[in-house]
Every structure is written in C-alpha cells, then in structure tokens.
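Q: What does the predicted 3D structure of peptidylprolyl isomerase look like?
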Amino acid sequence: MNVIKYSCAIVLALVVLYACKKDDDDGGATAVPPRDRGEQQITDDAALQDYLRTHFYTLEDVFVNNDAIAEYQIAKLDTIADANIGEQSILDSPLLITKKITRNDVEYTLYILNLNQGGGAHQPTFADSTLVTYQGELLYKPKSSNKIFDSAVNPVWFDLVSVVEGFRESLVDFKGASSFVENSDGTVTHTGQGNLVVFMPSGLAYFNEARPSIPAYSPLIFNIQLYKVNQADHDRDGLPSYLEDIDGDRLVLDVNDDTDQDGTPDYIDNDDDRDGTLTKDEITINDSNNDGFITPDEITFYDDDGDGIKNHLDADDRDLKNE
C-alpha cells in the first residue's frame, strides 16, 4: 500500500512540474482587458436599432395548465422579409419607449416595448421583489447555441437587486396584475399584469462576462410579465431597502451605501452606523394604510444632536425610540 501511495505521489508531482513547465513555456495566460464601455455602447446601440428596424412582433398566447385558457401573452419577434415585408417595425411602433441610464460615465439606452402597463396598485422599486415570467434571448442565433438562453413559463420571484440592470430598470416602470383568482387545482390566474419587452445593450447586461449560452458583449432581449410586487426590507430593520440607497444612484450594493464602512451595505446591515443600537430602534414606522408598502411619510426619523445626520446613520445618537 505504501508503494502505491508513494508512486502516486511521484506521478502527481511530475504532472504538476510538467504543467508548470508548460505554463512557463507559454508565458502564462494573458488576461484580456475589457473593451471601452463608451465604444461598446455605440456598437451595441447600432445593433439594437438595426434589429428594431428589421423586426416586428406578434402577440402569442402561452398555455401552461393544459387547458383552453392562456395564462399570458408573449411577443414573438420575427424578421421583416418575404411574406412579412409589409409589417410595421418595432422601431416604428407607438408602443416603443426609450429610457436613458448613465453608468460609469456612459449613457445607455434601453428600448422598451410597453405591451401592458399593468393594473396593480404598486410598481417595484430597484430593490424590491417581483413575481414574473420571462424569456431571455439573443439578438441573433449563434452557430453553437440556441437564441433563447433562459425562460420561466411559470411565475418565479426575482430580487431586483440581483438581476442585470437592464432587466431591473425596465421593470420598475410597470405594475403588477390588477387581479388574480386561485383555481381549484392550486394554480393562479392573473389578469391585467404588466407586459413588456426590453432590448438592452451589453453594458446594462453582462458586458464582458460571458455565460454558457451568452457570449461576451451581447445585447439582450427579455420578454417579461409582472404579476406581483413585494416591497423588500432585506435586513428587516424597518426601512424599505430602496431607502437605504444613501448616494441616490439606484444601486444598493456599492461602497457608498455602507455608512459604517464595515463591508456590509446598509440594506443588509441591521445596525447601519454600528453604534450598538439597531436601525429599527432608531426610527419609528407607521404603516398608516396597512398596505405593506412603507413610504417616507410613514417613517419618523430622528436627529437628537441636531447635526443634520439621522440617528440611524449617526454613531453619536443611539437612544432607543420604540421602548
């Protein structure tokens, strides 16, 4: 047994030495720097506009429960050619809107096909949780993979903090369903849900980070149906997560949203200023209409020392307010 053990060790050592020698001979792997974001945006926007100019859409029913009732509709996208030559392009559709987003000193454009604004009472913020169905696809089919790279035909909950920015920033302008019915088989039928298609540049998607079915620098298309919105309070400190965006850039994950600089952004930190008093005990919440959605006017903030910094963000103020 010892002979086998030592023999294996020698073979392993030789393999490692050979691998190291090969790396030395090749000079090691060379990291490819990402492309310039401004230049890539110009390229992506041209590709998106060309796609929108040369494609049209038709609404297609989606049946999930094997009955005669469609759960929702999805926009089927096709090329304007041959028998379809007279179709109106997506670019010329009166339902197409644009939205500008500036990131890293680059202005990006989202193209959003507003199929249904949604009839619900609430629309999500950039940090909320949403119940959606969706289909993601590339502009054009690659040779080695499918054009459609992801989908959910049954509703799934998405935390908007963790999705790509183009998905998040398009969805926040829509509302959930106006009503729903729980069926006898346990399924739910929604009515009047938000329905949109977003065409996004790679800079608001994965940019230079390739995925198994998504090449680097790929503009993306998402068909999205929005059914419900839950206001998120990730750290359960009483403050909705969107109100913990300290620098106002609609992102809650960045270092500028970490008041005490402890490496934990405020939206997942239940003691934002690390003064030993939990955030929930330094503010007072009153959901006056009992709708589960807290608005700024339903929060009482305190500033005991009058220095212009709210107690929950000021390590000098630590009095309990909800005893």
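A (community wiki): The structure tokens above were generated from the sequence. The first strand starts at residue 55 and ends at 62. The helical segments are 2-26, 37-54, 165-171.
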